[in-house]
Amino acid sequence: MPTDAVTMDKIVSLCKRRGFVFPSSEIYGGLGSSYDYGHYGVLLKNNVKNQWWKAMLQERDDVVALDSAIIQHPRTWEASGHLAGFTDPLVDCRTCKLRFRADKLEDAQCGRKPSKHPGETPDCDLTEARDFNLMFETTVGPVKEEGSTVYLRPETAQGIFLNFKNYMQFARKKPPFGIAQIGKSFRNEITTGNFIFRTREFEQMEMEFFVPPDEAQSWHQHWLAERISWWTSLGLRPDHLRLRPHTADELSHYSSATSDVEYLFPIGWSELEGIANRGNFDLTQHATFSGQKLEYVDTATGERYVPHVIEPAAGVDRALLAFLVDAYDEDEIEGEQRTVLRLHPILAPVKVAVLPLVRKDGQPELATEVYRELRDHVQAEYDEGGAIGRRYRRQDEIGTPWAVTIDHQSLQDRTVTLRDRDSLAQVRVPIGELVDVIRGRLGELWRSPKLDG
Ligand code: ATP
Predict the structure, then answer these.
(1) By alpha-carbon position, which residue is closest to atom 11 of ligand 1?
(2) Mean pLDDT by 10 residues, the chain (453 residues)
(3) Which residue's CA lies nearest to atom 29 of ligand 1?
(4) Ligand 1 near 198 CB (within 6 A)
(5) d(CA 432, CA 434)
(6) Is 0.85 topped by the overall pTM?
(7) Which has the closest alpha carbon to 325: 344, 341, 349, 348?
């Protein structure tokens, strides 16, 4: 197998250089592990989320959408178990004053001797581990008083459970059915790092699928298969993806079975998505804490039960990182080194670049006309600055799958060349057919050229 050119440093630097992701608050020296998404990052992120919505909503008729509040009634987190149990064990080092997750010491570096793990040098002086709640606390209202404490949600899932009753009434759904949402979550992580892999503010794509209790296991299997197929259909190389079932001592308090979709990041195999069988834990807890009945009642038969829940929960930022890592490649064209993102075309921030070969002889005018036509249909970009080779490289680096070049011949016969980012093949296409050709290519099955090495 050829070695992969990608490293985390290269991804971080490409993201900054080309406006995908910037460290946040940079003019003030930055704020650890906070990031801002730039123009191409926003486009890529939107494409990832749109593909998730497409698979969850558009292509199914048993899932509906929700966008719930970030700040919810504080009882939510008592009922969900987050207030008591959403903790990580934390240790402080009295010598270097750094703070570590007690269960992840082998991944951390000693503050004095980075080649060692905390606790490994004679100078290390670690405190006993104590539990640290990961929820961000804030207050509602002008006065900080009893009862005003609220939390930023650490997961989007609870908003779905709080709305279960509304959906039973308005959506007239009968299990099995699901409620999906995408939104920001917040966790005061003790150790962040690895770029956008683990941050304190991140976006999640979660779906709670409510099922009759005796069908929970088979629906869990269904969603494991669906989700793996979603990741591979968007181009992630199958040999870089795996499903890993949680061991009994890893399972969350609510889960009877969880499998993680893991991706082989440059930092090693790490979680991309968790797919859990949450049983009836959440609905039962919220029913107890709220005093409301949260169950399904079949009006025809009188049958009633508390549905069980299967939850596929993925991180948008981690997804973005995985797609970038999987796509990153370097090669050589005519003796020149190029960096190229071999993204699935459906995810690429820009689908097509329109480039006049020279900035004269009517070429920019015709190119502008072509660009205006294309941008009505797909995200397009017009670029007339610099040598044509340089402009191709710029587009390759942000993953643009196709470039349309307007040349001398275009003015005579209204044809253009269409260049492919990966094969570098160039074909002549009549301007009138461009939209259809690009649409056709976008609909084709795609496989990462990195698989063919
Ligand atoms: P981890 O074990 O990596 O902390 P988790 O098991 O706590 O993750 P879940 O609660 O299952 O994560 O959340 C679902 C998904 O949300 C994760 O698979 C991941 O993609 C994303 N996610 C969770 N925490 C973070 C974070 N701090 N930063 C970025 N994404 C996150």
Answers:
(1) 274
(2) 80 97 94 93 98 98 97 96 88 90 87 91 92 92 79 98 93 91 95 88 98 97 98 97 93 86 96 97 98 93 96 98 98 92 98 97 98 98 95 98 98 98 97 98 94 82
(3) 198
(4) yes
(5) 6
(6) yes
(7) 341
